[in-house]
Amino acid sequence: MSIENADTLANSTNPANAKNPLHTENPAPAKNHASAENHASAENKGIVVVGAGLAGWHVIDAIRAKDKDIAITLITADNGDRYHKPMLTMAISQNKRAADLVRATGADAAKAANVNLLANTQVTDVDATTQQLQLVSALRSDPVYTNYATISYDKLVLAMGAQPIFPKSLPEDLVWHVNHIERFGQLQEKLAAGSQHVAIVGAGMVGTEIAEDLLKAGHEVTLIDLNDAPLSQMLPAKAAARIAAAVQSQGIHFLGGYQVSGVTRQEDGKLQVRYAPVADSAGSAAAQSSEPLVVDHVIASTGLTVDARLPTAAGVEFDRRTGIVVDATTLRTQASNIYAIGDCMSINGVACRYVAPLRAQAATIADDILGMAHDGYDHKPPMIRLKNKAISVMATGVPQATGNWQVKTDTDDELIMELLDDNNDVSATVTIKAPPMVKS
Fold first, then answer.
1. What is this structure's pTM?
2. For residue 324, what is the domain's CATH number?
């Protein structure tokens, strides 16, 4: 099947294309499984990558480093721009807009890598038997949004990432997330109007980093979490308590041990956040007032989930919480010729949602796809660093809140703890240091 290049896909204003927004030779009927006679043949199927985040582009880089000519198609629901996602939790205080974070536009990056970019395109179905994907324009304003097209693949790489979780108490139409550059850009524009009050729901790593970034940008920040301290789901209470103290010493209002029950918009345009103490909280939540909080914006930082539609359609083993199950050494799924990488995959039941391993993961997939000998991917949990300046937090291994944590160093300036497994071997560490004093 022939599909035209990157920047023409789903963006054409030519009336001649109105009935075929994907510009395919033979668009399939508007149903999930088009009949065989409606499928266009693909003379050069090649590799198809779904998702143009860090993971997807890393795979393309790794393949192109070893094969300049093999056909690669990149499918993304956005424009495919290349940017470093971890910067999103630091950029507002640096007065950086979304455009400032883009390292290369999707069109330019695709041209440089000799990639066929299908921007603003969603994959609605995967047929692992015929090795075909069904596509539709992601532009909701498209007059023929239900017109589908198909594309075939020799090898498929799922790199579609993970999506923010929005509990029922956090309506998506009222609450922001900072998981994508487009949404970040919209929030940044709103905050550029001047000092505002922002409530952040969820005090994991992302929520805690955003809280400091917004505070440094001159905004009032309230950080709300079910637990009594930030990072309580991954660190022992003794370590998390130090983070809570550092966060509050900056001037961030931390409401630990509270659950948000709803967010509504007032007549004046502000948002009312209703919350109540968690019943089993051991902290001071019960003693504090839980009158509704009135703020200008609410940001959800309540975790990630992997969209079930494509893994389910492809018939690959999958868990919404951790992601697509892959072989630990090849990163292949249980379906032939389908791989997964990055936020959407899991190894041995553990989600892989850190940037550091992506390059090695991509290299393994590239070698395996190209039939090159390789030693296999050796997954090692990366060092975890909190980007906050108020306190230094570093963790290794796979830290968790519970377990046999032992204190190795405990001073006013430093706390070092080790997590021991059943064999008394160290399975994780956490090091927390006070920031160096700034000399006047």
1. 0.86
2. 3.50.50.60
